[in-house]
Amino acid sequence: MEREIIKTHDGSTTIHIKEWDECYHSKFGAIQEANHVFIKNGLNLFQNKKISILEIGFGTGLNAFITFLESKKRSLALNYVGVEAYPISLAEVNAMNYVSELNAENETIIFEKMHNSNWEEKIDLSESFTLTKRKQFFADIVDLDCFDLIYFDAFGYRVQPELWSTALFKKMYDALKPNGILVTYAARGVVKRSMIEVGFTVEKLAGPPGKREMFRARKN
To answer: 131, 9, 8: which is closest to 80 by C-alpha?
Structure first.
């Protein structure tokens, strides 16, 4: 499918898939969306402890990079696992402007390492942040009681409804530790029903710019 690099409303870049008219991040602001959904309503719930995060849709690496930056500010020890079936190209990586937009030029090497590291290999990005990228279809995830937090950032229900199925949310539920949290930009009723069906307690929160609502789910 044909892809293009576009700038979102906050000045940060994303990838647009023309055939689907779907973007990797919100057109209203890639960085704003990541900060609101995954940091403010996810990572912020965890303080001064070692946690494990599973990202569904590693994509451009934006969520992982912002999480790395935030973990340094908060002295959080993080084990980060990003799952992606279709990695972006090196040219697309180089076209992303997240380092400059986040005023993180001193961490340029970290963003590069995130993308240049081998798949299926756990690497140390710092003394307190490990990253493992898994080239894997989401349906093949079989982790059990491993993660404190899931960033669910799959392509939207409109273009890939199978990624928002009850069967997939059962895998997410199983992958979380007791009282673990899943956050996502989505807020469709069908998504909420699937989450509840597998055992999640779901709350509706204010969404990022350009989106009225989002979901946060807790494993009971």
So the answer is: 131
What tens digit of pLDDT does each residue of 146-170 get?
999 999 999 999 999 999 999 999 9
> What pLDDT score was predicted for residue 54?
98
For 31-219, CATH number out of 3.40.50.150, 3.20.20.60, 3.30.450.20, 3.40.50.300 equals: 3.40.50.150
**What single letter denotes the amino acid at residue 200?**
F
Q: Is the pLDDT of residue 209 over 90?
A: yes
